[in-house]
Amino acid sequence: MEMEDYHDKLYFWENSREKERRRLLVEEAEDKQRGGVWIDERRGFLDKLVARRRRGSIEPGVGKWVSYLNREKKLDTLVGHRPVAPVAPKGLYLYGNVGSGKTMLMDMFYGATEGVIKHRRRFHFHEAMLEIHDHMHDVWKRRDDDKSIHSSAFSWISSLPFDTKIKEWLIGEEKYKQQTQEKHILLAVADKFLVDRQANKTGASILCFDEIQTIDVFAVVALSGILSRLLSTGTVLVATSNKAPEDLNQDGMQRDIFLELLSKLDESCNEILVGTEKDYRRLIPTEGSTEVHYFWPATSDARSMYEAMWHDITDQSGENIVSVTIPVMFGRSIEIPQSCNGVARFDFEYLCGRPVGAADYIAIARNYHTIFISEIPAMSMKIRDKARRFITLIDELYNHHCRLICLAASSIDDLFQGTEEGPLFDLESFQFETESEGTKLRRDVLAEGNAGSGPSTTGLVAILSGQEEMFAFRRAISRLIEMQTPLYLERVLAVHPSFRRPGLARNNRPAVPQPAPAV
Q1: Which residues form the AAA+ ATPase domain (predicted)?
Q2: pLDDT tens digits, 136-188
């Protein structure tokens, strides 16, 4: 309750402060128009003298910085200082091996807070990075838009009864305020990071963060700045990772910034090693299941069963198979070649053989509860970029609890064992956006966030260590195995985002089409 009260007070304080700030600006503008700076030459000498003396008792025009500070001091007196967040309970940092139950424990906790905790968000690493990028993009776009006097940010000024020069002064003061507040871009992003845009809720008492990684300079700087800010304002963090906090940044990128994050994590979270070498996903019961969702090898019989499942499921939907385009972040879109009422079909090359990344996969996973993927090859060094994208794809389909039907060249366990071309090794780290997006965003956050360059230019390319590569392989295999189990498949209806949209009553949710029983 304390945190709920804090967010309510913070929301009221922010709105009250903005109203008072505009009122003070209008008062200053009225004084200037009456004779402070731009004096009507038609006015008499006595009127001008009185106006100048009145102006001298208000505020000396000694620069935007002093004006801004004086205005902020007045606001502190009128509205009060920003509410102080209550002391938050310690969060949790869970780390351990693949399949040890880290994400399951975090999700159980997150599910238990539904209806109890008003302000809460759950992110996977890729999704969090993309949201950070999106907020940064909004900040930069707003900066560009606000350079124009016709910007929507200044629309409240246009209707005021002032001369053009007075309005220009007001716009200048507004621009200066925005520039001052956005000087440290990561703090500006952190304050918006936990906004639920659909529900229009601000803030969060709980942040659940799955698979924390520091794979490059951007991740180190962004996570350090944003998590430190959130933890300092009362947010409770429950996180998972394959590494202990002190082992997250073994390459030593941005060491000073990283050490600040470690200190904040140590202060705010209890570290718990989920210490087992056992992959519990492999122990999920499969008895009684007559469905096959992973067809291998790609023989004519396997292909026929795969095609039959596609037709069974799409026929049950009662709609036509069409090609559609869905929006992706950063103003992009992706074409879905075969789409049918929440069911989509692709081949491996289309999803993993092109310059796409997690933004595209998240868009697909949010829009489709059932995904068909054919022609999945055994991975080798020859197609390491495709293997990298495939792992990211599996991560996002799993995180959004999609049903996945595959036609592959090899068994799940042999997918990443290499081929006659050689073993699969030296896998580059996961991409969470296309190169065209990532290069500018990473470069600019380093400049805007007052961070130096990394230890080398290859730091921005984010090459994972061999240990991390093997963890990525094992995680993808473990998740693919779980995605075939009845327990996972039964929960698609309850968990997938398309069935959890606001206003969709539980008894009105469409059923997930089921394939015909195997003969």
Answers
A1: 88-278
A2: 888 777 766 655 555 666 788 888 888 888 888 888 888 888 777 666 778 77
Residues 317 and 511: their CA atoms lie apart, in Å, by 9
Where are the alpha helices (H) located in 233-299, listed in sequence order? 255-268
Beta strand pairing status for 333-340 and 343-347? antiparallel
The residues, any chain, with a CB within 8 Å of residue 207's CB and separated by 6 or more, are 120, 121, 122, 123, 194, 230, 235, 236, 237, 238
Which residues partner with 124 through β-bridges? 210
Domains of the chain with CATH codes: 91-270 (3.40.50), 280-424+466-499 (3.40.50)
* Percent composition of the chain: helix, strand, coil (DSSP 3-state, to 5): 50, 15, 35
At what angle are helices 2-31 and 164-181 packed, to 10 degrees? 150
Q: How far apart are CA 321 and CA 34, in angstroms?
A: 69
Q: Do residues 198 and 89 make contact, with C-beta atoms less than 8 angstroms apart?
A: no
For 452-468, what is the HEC assignment? CCCCCHHHHCCCCCHHH
Instruction: For residue 439, give every residue at least 6 positions away whose Cβ sits within 8 Å of its Cβ, in sequence order, or none.
Output: 460
Number of helices (H), then strands (E), belonging to the chain: the values are: 18, 11
Write the CB contacts of 248 (distance below 8 Å, at least 6 apart in sequence). 212, 213, 214, 241, 258
- 3-class secondary structure, 345: strand
Indicate the burial class of 473 (C-beta count within 10 angstroms; 0-12, 13-18, 19 or more). buried
pTM: 0.75
DSSP state of 86: P
d(CA 485, CA 302): 19
- Per the listing, tokens 């959004």 go with 400
